[in-house]
Amino acid sequence: MSQAIMIVEDEPELAALVADYARAAGYTPQVFGDGREALAAIRANPPALVVLDLMLPSLDGLSLCRALRETSELPVIMVTARVEEIDRLLGLEAGADDYLCKPFSPRELMARIKAILRRAGAAPSAPVLAIDDTARLARVHGQPLDLTPSEFAILAALARRPGQVFSRAQLLDAAHADSLEATDRAIDSHIKNLRRKIDAAAPCLEPIRSIYGLGYRFDL
Predict the structure, then answer these.
(1) Distance between CA 141 and CA 213 in Å, rounded?
(2) Strand pairing of 215-218 and 165-166?
(3) Residue among 39, 144, 24 at smallest CA distance from 16
(4) Buried residues in 156-179 as b, exposed as e (16+ CB within 10 A)
(5) Cβ-Cβ contacts under 8 Å for 151 (sequence gap 6 or more)
(6) Which of 202, 188, 200, 187 is nearest to 129 (CA)?
(7) Contact 137, 146 (CB under 8 A)
(8) Pairing relation of β-strands 165-166 and 208-211?
(9) What is the helix (H) or strand (E) element at residue 115, kind and residue range?
């Protein structure tokens, strides 16, 4: 079961964007635009983590965070458009675990959420990537990827040995590309397509790394 991430943000478009990224990262987002309503919801059913805007109607983010810290160690990431150092210090002193200034990258926010939950021992338990060799199917957060046979073979080879660097020649072998037209450039094209398809299913993931002068590595 995925962890619930509460997004307390009174800008609807930004809240929806963060919720989309959280969902793609395997979390269950809950969105609130009012500080008092969010505090009541947290006390009734605490999420795994709160992404908390500083400027909120009825109860601002600093006050909400201080109220939480009276009874809870629930992880909090504070976000705000105010960039003065004093604001960051106030947020951290109020009990926030991390701080991001707007505009921020949703990918960076997801990375910070993942790091904080990992430290708290609450990272998502479901596998991010699942490879089914029998069905020749790869899934990201349960969502199937529409891969060509060569793309599936390359992804499966990389995913089975995370951290290992594969040369383009090794990936050509994995893809059973024995045609005279099979070249290093073909592998680069397959990798580009894999990254695009993974990004469409889970925008926060970038598992295939380029290792300059050597090839590619899978990190997840």
Answers:
(1) 31
(2) antiparallel
(3) 24
(4) bbbbeeeeeebebebbbebbebee
(5) 190, 193, 194, 197
(6) 202
(7) no
(8) unpaired
(9) helix 106-119
Task: Quickly count helices (H) and strands (E) in the chain.
Answer: 8, 11
Domain ranges of the chain: 4-119, 129-218
Under 8 Å between Cβ of 28 and 122: no
Check if the beta carbon of residue 76 is closer than 8 Å to that of residue 68: yes
The CATH class of the 129-218 domain is: mainly alpha
The rounded radius of gyration (Å) of the Cα atoms in the chain is: 21
Supply 183's token pair.
């070249």
- At the top level of CATH, which class does the domain 4-119 belong to? alpha beta
Closest to 47 measured CA to CA, from 88, 77, 75, 83: 75
**Sign of the alpha-carbon dihedral angle for 92, 93, 94, 95:** positive
Cis peptide before 103 (omega within 30 of 0): yes
Model confidence over 167-220: pLDDT tens digits? Answer: 999 998 888 755 545 677 889 999 999 999 998 887 767 889 999 989 999 986
Calpha distance 28→6 (Å, rounded): 8
Taken as a whole, the chain contains a residue count of 220
Strand 143-144 relative to strand 165-166: parallel, antiparallel, unpaired? unpaired
What confidence tens digit (pLDDT) does each residue in 7-58 have? Answer: 999 999 999 999 999 998 889 999 999 999 999 999 889 999 999 998 899 9
